[in-house]
From TrEMBL:
Organism: Loxodonta africana (African elephant)
UniProt name for this protein: Olfactory receptor
Family indicated by similarity: Belongs to the G-protein coupled receptor 1 family.
Annotated compartments: Cell membrane; Membrane
Keyword tags: Cell membrane, G-protein coupled receptor, Membrane, Olfaction, Receptor, Sensory transduction, Transducer, Transmembrane, Transmembrane helix
Pfam families noted in UniProt: 7tm_4
Length: 313
């Protein structure tokens, strides 16, 4: 666009998930339930892994941070999306849009590397059980989560500042239900080559590095399991990885579907549905997966419930 079309934007308009009024009420009810289950499930996991002494292990330390990142990026998107279902105008202020983008990037990038750290933790537990407590010491565990948080914070600030210092045109409608980087870039009047290059480079780096760590870790785990002579030992090793592997497949499967599936006239709606799945549904599923497939978590829930009941009675 020409430079004379530049304007100072005070707010953006989010298109939302649907423009059909008759669907707003049922969608609001459905996503409210999904979000509330997500909040209660992830908060429950965070509290449970903090108060139950038997869950004070590296595996559950990382699970606590997975729940924290799930809670973070679903909360960055969920409340505003729910509000837009019940208000007439789907506006978001300029500053809140930047804030939403920044926090979403922080938590989603952190989650990618927390998942890869959890895979490494399982590799050490299965392949080096005698040295597990030495290798995965509390200090090492803290470093392994601090690094992703610091990296994601710096990357988020870089992307957000780069986008929001660019001049926007008069058109302020974001073709999404939250402030995401690519829909925002389409509203910029100046050259977006540098911003797109930064997003492409770091997105590729994040996905390739994290997935490489996960694949290598599970390849080593598979080799170690195949060398085990005891069937019971193999089943136990597989069971310790089952929940994490399920979460990884669902999370990365959704991301690959979004970015690899063929583009079509319906790709925008398809991407919105995939975005809904990984921003709201996956954070709801993760605590359910870890609760249903993990005996230690279920036993911890029972112990905590009994203790709370005894206190109240």
């Amino acid at each position: 666009m020409n430079k004379h079309n530049l304007t100072v934007l005070n707010e953006f308009i989010l298109m939302g998930i649907t423009d059909r009024p008759e669907l707003r009420a049922p969608l609001f009810g459905f996503f409210l339930i999904v979000y509330m289950v997500s909040v209660m499930g992830n908060l429950g996991l965070i509290i449970l892994t903090m108060v139950d002494s038997r869950l004070h292990t590296p595996m559950y330390f990382f699970l606590r941070h997975l729940a924290f990142t799930d809670l973070g990026y679903s909360t960055a998107v969920g409340p505003k999306m729910l509000t837009n279902f019940i208000v007439g105008q789907h506006t978001i202020s300029y500053n809140w849009c930047a804030t939403q983008l920044a926090f979403f990037c922080i938590f989603i990038v952190s989650e990618i590397f927390v998942l890869s750290t959890m895979a490494y933790d399982r590799y050490v537990a299965i392949c080096n059980p005698l040295l597990y407590t030495v290798i995965m010491s509390p200090r090492v565990c803290q470093v392994l989560v601090v690094i992703p948080y610091v990296y994601s914070l710096l990357l988020s600030l870089l992307m957000t500042i780069k986008i929001f210092i660019s001049p926007f045109c008069g058109f302020n409608v974001i073709r999404h239900f939250y402030c995401d980087s690519l829909p925002l870039i389409s509203l910029i009047c100046s050259s977006t080559y540098d911003i797109k290059l930064i997003i492409l480079a770091f997105s590729g780096f994040n996905l390739v590095l994290s997935l490489l760590i996960i694949l290598v870790s599970y390849m080593m785990i598979l080799v170690a399991i195949l060398k085990m002579k005891s069937v019971e030992g193999r089943l136990k090793a597989f069971s310790t990885c089952g929940s994490h592997l399920t979460v990884v497949v669902v999370f990365y499967g959704t991301l690959f579907f979004m970015y690899v599936h063929p583009k079509s006239s319906h790709s925008f709606d398809t991407n919105k549905m995939a975005s809904v799945f990984y921003t709201l549904v996956i954070p709801m599923l993760n605590p359910i997966i870890y609760s249903l497939r993990n005996k230690e978590v279920k036993n911890a829930v029972d112990r905590t419930w009994k203790e709370c009941s005894n206190i109240l009675l």
